[in-house]
Design a protein that fits this description.
Elements (H helix, E strand, L loop, with lengths): L21 H4 L6 H13 L1 H24 L2 H21 L2 H5 L3 H21 L27 H19 L3 H12 L4 H8 L3 H23 L3 H5 L1
Helix pairs in contact: 2-3, 3-4, 3-6, 3-8, 4-6, 6-9, 8-10, 9-10
Length: 231
Amino acid sequence: MGSGPFRHSRRPAGVPWTRATEAARTRFYPVMDADDRLIADLADDLDAAFERLVIAHQDRLYTIALRMLGDPGDAEEAAQDALVRAYRALASYDRARIAELRLRPWLSTIVLNRCRTVGARRATRGPKPVSIDGDANRPITEPEAPEAATPTAVAERHAERDRWAVRLAALPTAYRTAIVLRHVDGLTYPEAAEALGRPEGTVKAQVHRGIALLRTMLEAETRPEPEEMTA
């Protein structure tokens, strides 16, 4: 199959994989109105509208998967499979059912399920090192460094991002998932609760506890060693 992030896709006929535009890579952009229009168009003509779904959501699904799995190859596999399964599901839905979907939490549920499958399979072959940079040709959806940033500042920013990736990977899965959806992907609490199939209060508690654990990790890392204190 051709080049691009989904060049190894096992896509069904009519599903176009495209590289996301720069606008689609921006983390904070107005998606709700666009998703409402997209849902209507998917209900009218799935094959014609699905490319827009891919462009709008493939990078956020990849980012979720990368945060959950820690490996770019596994993350791309999970994101790719999620989009294939989304297409197949939509093709089996009637117009009314498609019109009722909320795309962001619905797609999040699918990619998280794929992450569980990929993670379970990976467990049989041993863990891979945690990575947050991903594929150099497929930037994750994070704000860019200021243009005036020095090379040293950019390097430190990347190093700090890697440290946070390791901390995030060390969290219990339930806490990590809730934090990824709320604070990495930017879902609202009701959307995250829908995606996870958990009560909203449970999701809020898991986010709170996860952040508390991250804070504890950070404090432990920055606490002076006894020798330093007595030097």
